[in-house]
Amino acid sequence: MKLNERHLMQLAAVLDAGGVSEGAAMLGLTQPAVSRSLAMLEARVGEPLFVKGRRPLQATQLGFQLAAQGRTIITASRKASDAVQGFMKGTKGVVRVGGVPFFMDAMISRMIGEFQNLEPEVTVQQSYLNLPEMVAALEGNQIELGIVPIGVLDLGPGFEFTEILPGRNIVACRPGHSLLRNRRLRAHDLTSFPWVAPLPGSPLMSDLQMILMSIGMSDLNIRYSGGSLMSVINYLAETDALAVLPFSVVFAQRKENRVTVLPYEIPQPNRSLGILRRVGGLRAPAAERFAAHVTTSFENLRHIIKRHENAVVWGR
Amino acid sequence: MKLNERHLMQLAAVLDAGGVSEGAAMLGLTQPAVSRSLAMLEARVGEPLFVKGRRPLQATQLGFQLAAQGRTIITASRKASDAVQGFMKGTKGVVRVGGVPFFMDAMISRMIGEFQNLEPEVTVQQSYLNLPEMVAALEGNQIELGIVPIGVLDLGPGFEFTEILPGRNIVACRPGHSLLRNRRLRAHDLTSFPWVAPLPGSPLMSDLQMILMSIGMSDLNIRYSGGSLMSVINYLAETDALAVLPFSVVFAQRKENRVTVLPYEIPQPNRSLGILRRVGGLRAPAAERFAAHVTTSFENLRHIIKRHENAVVWGR
DNA sequence: TAGCTTCATAGCAAAATGCTATACAAGCGG
DNA sequence: CCGCTTGTATAGCATTTTGCTATGAAGCTA
């Protein structure tokens, strides 16, 4: 007993509007069209849906039950239309963002929150990815956007990279660390403390290698590795350990005052944080909106950093 | 932007089945039919719903969102079909029962419970009506069944009355009432106690008038009136008041032992409790089932009463 | 009972839907 | 890398459905 969904919708409209003519008008149809639909539905069902010879129109119990389903069909249909509208305007839908863990935790998660204060109907699915997986995920349409630091731009065609912040790493430690009292730090000062290692495969890991070389040490005393940003910060706050972190990540934590910058010059990576996406990919207006939001947020952040640095010699 | 609901359903089926051909099969259609539907939907939406040139078929985010709506449409449609099936078998739907208050409270409410243990998907809407309103409600299709005591069967055509229990009233009082100790009660013994009056307009009210006449008193000492069955029983249990009640109603309360029958013969009404319904009315299989259940329940009750009376001279 | 309003039916044109047959494209194994 | 397999898109056609206008029938109200 398969019923015609259109008929169910018309039934619902008629009951809600209180008459065939009104229901037809509500759907933008003529009265005879709806009248026939009801007759066909009734014939299909084999039971009366209306009490005959009654004005104003009165539905049977079965009529009410079917109308209830018709109503949910109407609702679903309108939701579908709304989803399309919202998708095109970028005010609805799902944005899947992959990113390197520390930046996601330190900055992007906040920006997602800000963004959703403006666009509450956009859902964001965050995932943690480093460059290789990110490229694969973009190509496989698993994510719309990637947040990643990239050096040489040799990703081939089909990808677009929007720079949002120049890469700049620092050595981080807890406030009150004994090294902060030294006027001029030497390399061997740093090697006498334990270090936190970033995740293997992350850009920071190769940066740590660079520092190692510049310091001239073949290996550091690494006692902790694998933690997320919160873990690392918690760890740094409790110990005298040192870690290589992006400056902006530490800057974003300035209000909490749990980590600070050790004034020691380290070699800087030739790399920028940016938004990676497919250029030939599918339209995803909500993702574009989010990308724009992230871009302007970082633009603002850059100014804030500059003002901050002018005001105080931060980290000393 | 009005989308075709059928297309949305097909989209959902295709995504759930994992392919156009499988989705088509699931809906009992051919692959080209569904393929074209998807193309039309995509054209209407103006955005791709599938990632092109990918096998296995991969939907876009928008495709997923629309499919979700399609899925609810499919569900609603199936629910509508189920509602029809259930209606015809009498296993689904709404039964609206009107009845005289005391019988509804004493017996029918229990039977509704029993019935729904067998037919959990039938909803029952109970209302309290006396005969005139009940006839109007049946004619106006506000209720399917009425439970009412009727004397002369002059309801005109279009109504059907199924007798379920002969009318038999008794005088009720609390167990331990002083009158129960009297061997032979006289009329004036009863008039020296206060009485509970039934609701005005109820059959019991006219029965009370009859008793009044048989006792030869022009008025009784009425101190309480208007209560539902529970109120009346609570009242009787607390006082030495007397009340005219249908025997079966008191019998139904025998386990609680809060009211009992005073062994005094009163004139019996020429009236039977029964189920009233429209004969030319709409089919209502669930209501028929319920009516059958009530009928057999009362049939059983009649036997139980008989056995009970054989075993003990009840009420003394 | 007359008149008004509202629903049902008739008849027709246009669109949508379904089918079969066939062309096309993506993955896969040799 | 080529052909094979599998699955999707397109073509063409018959049928059904859907929409409209015009008109008839039926309740309600005065």
Architecture overview:
Two copies of one chain form a homodimer. By secondary structure, chain A is of the alpha/beta class. The first copy, chain A, has three domains: 5-87, Winged helix-like DNA-binding domain superfamily/Winged helix DNA-binding domain (Arc Repressor Mutant, subunit A, Orthogonal Bundle); 90-165 and 275-311, Periplasmic binding protein-like II (D-Maltodextrin-Binding Protein, domain 2); 169-262, Periplasmic binding protein-like II (D-Maltodextrin-Binding Protein, domain 2, 3-Layer(aba) Sandwich), CATH 3.40.190.10. Helices cover 48% and strands 17% of the residues of chain A. Chain A has eleven helices and ten strands. In chain A, the strands form two sheets. The first copy, chain A, has a five-stranded mixed β-sheet with strand order 2-1-3-10-4, sandwiched between helices. A five-stranded mixed β-sheet of chain A has the order 7-6-8-5-9. In chain A, helix 8 links the parallel strand 6 and strand 7. In chain A, helix 5 packs across helix 11 (285-311). The first copy, chain A, is elongated and about 100 Å long. The termini of chain A are far apart. The model of chain A has no long low-confidence stretch (mean pLDDT 89). The interface between A and B is large, with 41 and 40 residues. Chain A binds a DNA duplex (30 and 30 nucleotides) through helix 3.
